[in-house]
Structure formats: C-alpha cells, structure tokens
Amino acid sequence: MLKKIVNPLVIASVALLPLMSACSSDTRTEAKASESVKKEVTAKSGKDFKLEPKKVSEGIYCMFGVLDGPTKENAGFMSNSCYIETEGSWVLWDAGATYKFAEQAYAAMKKIKDMPVSTVILSHEHDDHWLGAGYYQKNFGAKVIGSKLIGEHFKPGHEAETRMYTILKPEDVEGTKIITVDETAKEGTTTFTIGGVEMKYVSLGQAHSEDDYLLYLPGKKVMLAADVIMNGRITSNRDGSVLGQIKAIDTVKSMQWDVCVPGHGFITDKTATDESTLYFKLLKERIIAALDDDVEATEINEVVTLPEFKKAAMYDMLNSNNVSAAYTELEMAD
Ligand SMILES: [Zn+2]
Questions:
Q1: What domains appear along the chain, each with residue ranges and CATH number?
Q2: How far is the CA of 289 from the centre of ligand 1 (A)?
C-alpha cells in the first residue's frame, strides 16, 4: 500500500527534473546539447553486433542469433546464417534481418577470406532470414535464390510494413530494402555446384512456413536446416503445419550429416534435431487425443500443454498459439 502512495510522488518529482535543469545556466545547457549530439551520432551508426563467425565444418562459418523474437536490443540478430567457402567466392545460406547486419557479417568474413559473395540462398520467406540480402545484391551483384513467396508477400518500397521496420530502431534498419529474388526455388531437389562445392537445395513444402527449403552439402556432410529445426527455443508455427513439420524433420534426419545447423539455436551435433522431433511428436499426439475426447477449440490450451518445453526460450510467447494452430490443422485433417 505504502508503495502505491509513494510511487506517484516519485514520478511527479522525476517529471519536474527536465523543467528544473532547463532553468540552469547556459554552460550546462551547451554541455547537454553537445552530449546529445554525441549520443545521436553513436545512435545513428546502429548496433555493433560484434560478430564472431563460428566454424562449424571445414569451409563453413555460421553466425548464431539470440533465442528471442526481433527486439530493439538484438536489432534483428535472432536467426542463424552461414557462409560457405567455394573456389573464388562465398555462398551464403540466409542473409540475416538487416542491411547493417549483413554488412557486419561480411566484414567479419572478409577477415577470414577476402572474396566476394556470388550467391545467396534463402530458406524461407520470414524476414529475419533474408531482409539483409539487399547488401549482397548491391555490393556484389550476388544472385539471390529463394521461395516465390518472398516476391508474392513482400513488395519493394513497402519496407515500413515489415516486422523489422516495425520493431527495430530506425538506425538499425537503415539501408534495409525488400529485394527481388533472382531465381525462384523449385520443387523437389535442385543440385548446384558453385566453385567446386556441391549443394542440394531441397523443397520441404509447407512445414515451418508455407514454403521451406533446406541446403545439404553432401561432400561436407553438413545440413543447413533453417527453421524446420530449432533448439533451445520454441518454434513459431503461425503459418506452418504440424504434419508438414514432422515430414520435414524426417527428411532432415534421413540425410547423412555430421553437422546440422538449425535456423534458431546453437546445437549443431547429432542431437540438433532432438527437440524439434519431440516437440512436434508430443504436439500431434496430445492434440489428437484431445480431439478424440471432443475437447473444444476454446479449451484446448487448458488441456494441451507441453511442460517438457516450459524452460525453453519463448515458450510463454509462442506455445499456446502453436497449440491452437495445431488444433485447427489436425481437426481439419481428421
Ligand atoms: Zn521462420
């Protein structure tokens, strides 16, 4: 009770502070002004991501984002992207969320090997994975390969409508542009050999998003799975499919790899797929059991929970939506 009485008083006196300091001497005002100019200059340059690419396999370096949604604090660095070394150029798997992120990622990679980026291959249409691609088109004329949905759902000039522009600070999205995909991804498996490195770009259909792809490097036994595999955090199944996810995870697991890089998360060893496998298995089983018990849509979040994942990042934010979406999907599939 005491707290409630005291707080408004504190707020009131804090509110008076700017007025009080505005009345102070000219020198102080000047000092303050130069300080704010300084602050603005630092702010305008945007976030320094302090990127340290991690070598996950011979010639493959990845940048691992934090386990969260896009926030002002992380400036959109919350997804993973990888650089693949080929003869004469880098090939990129996903481009990160902003121009400035891409610029810093390239600067870090240039120290490892100074060569251009020839190709950017994208996993899916969610903007945290590709909005940075414009940096590579602009500076290297890199060819961008990705889902047709990027062109269908995102129009150049409409940057302000993207999640990144809505959430991040202006100085962190500066220069970020919606790109036009140069080559639309095809169904099935497309095999590229770029600079002597063989890559298989495999369509997974609707799984995590409406149109997902993985990139498999058979010669290196590396799987770049993007968002059909996550660990350490809960996935967002907002426009995906439980059945599609299970199928996509099976596809990932059916291929021979020693390293599997998730779209979000830090585990890349043989256990990389474990959490996603368990999450979707339990989600499907529990929703089907609830449907058999005639549980209504309005009650599904009370009946189906996934306590096994309660400690995973973003559980509180995403799990109940995933449960509701899974209910709608599996009820229709029934
Ligand atoms: Zn995604």
A1: 2-44 (no CATH), 54-231+241-272 (3.60.15.10), 282-333 (no CATH)
A2: 28
